[in-house]
Design brief:
By secondary structure, this protein is of the alpha/beta class. It is built from 27 helices and 21 strands. The strands form 4 sheets. Strands 14-21-20-15-19-16-18-17 form an 8-stranded mixed beta sheet, sandwiched between helices. Strands 3-2-10-5-6-7 form a 6-stranded antiparallel beta sheet. Strands 11-12-1-13 form a 4-stranded antiparallel beta sheet. α5 (109-119) packs across α7, α8 packs antiparallel against α10 and α9 (364-384) packs antiparallel against α10 (394-452).
Amino acid sequence: MDYQPLRTGSVNNSNSTTLTAGRRQSIPFDFKRFIAVVLADWYWVLLSVLIALTIAFLYIQVTRPVYAIKSALVVNEDENSNSDILDKLNLVKKTPVNFFNEMNAIHSEDLVAQTVDSLNLNVTYFVKGKLHDNELYKESPIRVVFDSAGYKGDHTELAVKYTSDGHFDLRENDHTVDVTNDTWVTKPYGRFKILYAYDPTTPNKYLMNEITVKIEAPEYTVRRILNDFKVTSMDGRTSVMDLNYKDNIPDRGVDFMNTLIRIYYRNKLRNIDLGAQKTRDFIDHHKADLMGDLRAVDSSVENIKEENNVLDLPSEANTFVNEKNLMNKNLDEMYAKRKALINLRYLLQNSRYQIIVPLDIHDNILEGLINQYNVLVQKLETQEKVQELGPSNPFMVQTIVELEALKRRMLDVLNRISSSLDVDMDVAKKSQANNIAHIKSIPTIDRNITEVKRGYDVLQNMYLFLFQKGIENEISVYNESNKSKILVAPYASSTPISPVRNYIYGLWLFIGLLIPLLILLIRQLLITRIVNETDIKIISEIPILGIVSRVDPDRLRNGYIAISSSVRTGISEQFRMIRTNLEFINFTENRRVISITSSDSGEGKTFVSLNLGLILALGTKRVVVVEFDLRKPKMAEFMRIKDINGVSEYLTGKAELKDVIKPSGINSNLYIANCGQAPANPGDLLAYPSTARLIDELQEMFDIVIIDTPPLGLVSDALVLSKLAGLNIFVVRQAVTTKKQLREYDELCKEGKIHNPAIIFNGVGYLKQYGYYYNPNKEYEQKLADYGPKQGRVYGERRHEEHGYGEERRSERGYGERERRYEERSSDRGYGERERRYDDRDRDRGYGEERGYGRGYRGYGPPPPPRRGFFGFFRR
């Protein structure tokens, strides 16, 4: 059976005290606490980072930088780069340039070997530096040059030291000889000489240094360069080659790339020129023979054209045909005009007056007469419609006269036009006859020219073909020479690609941060004790009733009391918050008995019991703290009361209840029931009926009964007493209580062995290593210090009023009536008289004045207000 939570919801306050229930929060890792731990141990992290950055700095200084040299070539894949005469005559099929063949060609060992030989890259020069030898390239004051036979050894190291003008000391294998500038030196591995690599008139800062010359076989240098030299395709879709090379000297790398490309072009052009010259000689020879034959044919054609007075036979034939067609068209138009003239003449002679439609005869006189005639015809038609005068209408007669006159004029014009048209037709017919005669003579002329030029087209086609191939050959040479173009000129990166400073520093910075963080993380994961509220929430669903801060023992009275009504401290406010949270708790069976236990001794259960009882007493509650730790009784010593007539004596029947209850000497509402003498059988005593009877009688006498039980992890006494309590509080102390102990308590609650549980988190130190970023107690006490003692009380009273605590709230809940019932019951049982006897005895013994506490609460401020109901106390 699972335990029931105190309430559903939460109560929050300024000290982060929470009272929660419901489902357990699934928090796999507390990042907030881990960050706080890192901040607490920041100096270790900083030291690790500094060490890591120092290692990175030394690595960068020792390692030689390597630079990236890049270039790009674009390859034209239209035609083959090597063409012979058969390719130029299209007698064989042309094959396109293979892009990947070009990539392999430029990455070939032969091409790299020519570059190495050209730049003498198998000879390197070094001077001693602070951390490592510095390699020289253009800064070297000397050059070691071998003859045409080259270097024949595997590896040789020489030391050259300038001695005087033109003289050097050459040391090899501890053997030193004097060598003169530009003088051949013969060795088993080859013949070489030492030359100045700079202008002797200008100083060189390395001239006086000893130069170490390292010589290796060219094939070794070629293999090493091929490993660092890569030719790749940019994206696989274009014919662009990316050339990438790595060198620790940027200028040497750029020189290598430029020389490699230059030699690559030179080799390609050499092969192209050889093939192109052979093609050029063949074409020129055959073109000269064909040209003589063509000239003979052209002379014969020229004679035929002169005899027949023809310049261009096809053009003239087309001209004659076009003229014939034009003449036929003109004759057709003339016949049409003639027919139109006949029709018009017939119309004028044989018809009455009618409108004449305009004719396609371009004559201005005729067109004017026709227009006048049409106007008079329209006028005549209008006059005929007038029937009043009849045919004798004078206007009508006048119109007819004018029409007749126009007819005669029009007939004269028609006769004139007809005569002119007949003359034009005769001329056109004669021209047509001449044109037809010329057309008939063209085939004869064409046949004669064709017979002469029968072999001309073959000769001309052959000549043009050779001429075209000659031009193609020259264009091919030009195209091949520009087939591979430099898309990106060789250049060196401005910063080294290895080691990359930012990358190295970033990597070692990460390592410097990672190592301490891993150590701190492992240390956090190995922590087995409870250090903050998050640990409690992860393990258990038991609500946290409140948090109690760690207290300096010097600030405690009697070693256990941390609360005073006259002084406001952070821990006092924390206990007031616990008191406030108790207001929202439903006690089991309305039993106002609070059992306080812990997993082990030293976790503060007695401290919590006494201070919780005192804070409730300050809230006008009659509280008794019962010491049930029968095995290790200490409360009498702490509270400075006589260790006689305690709980053990009552349970065994040796003392009465009135003798067991003693004033605390701290507050008039707080009483102590100490253990008394340690019994021989404490476990058996708790099983006596007198134990339950004791609790019941104390409930009737006091508002709150607090039971200080033995540790839960040592004996079973706490389990027995928990059944008599309405609320069971488990004290968890920071960095003392283990997670295993809290889990065991949680299991007991889930099994139903402990009901209505709650947790008080005790001894909390607000340290960064525990996940806290500030101390709320210091903040609260600083506010009180800023207000001052008097203003501090005003500040506290204002806080009470703002939260609505006071008589009005108490009266709404009916606490006053219940308090009066408690007063009457206490008076009937004689408790008031007994309290007066305790006060008299304390005064007789001098406890009040000497110890500073007692029923009158001497030395700790004004007496508390009169008792009120259980829930009618103030909270901050």
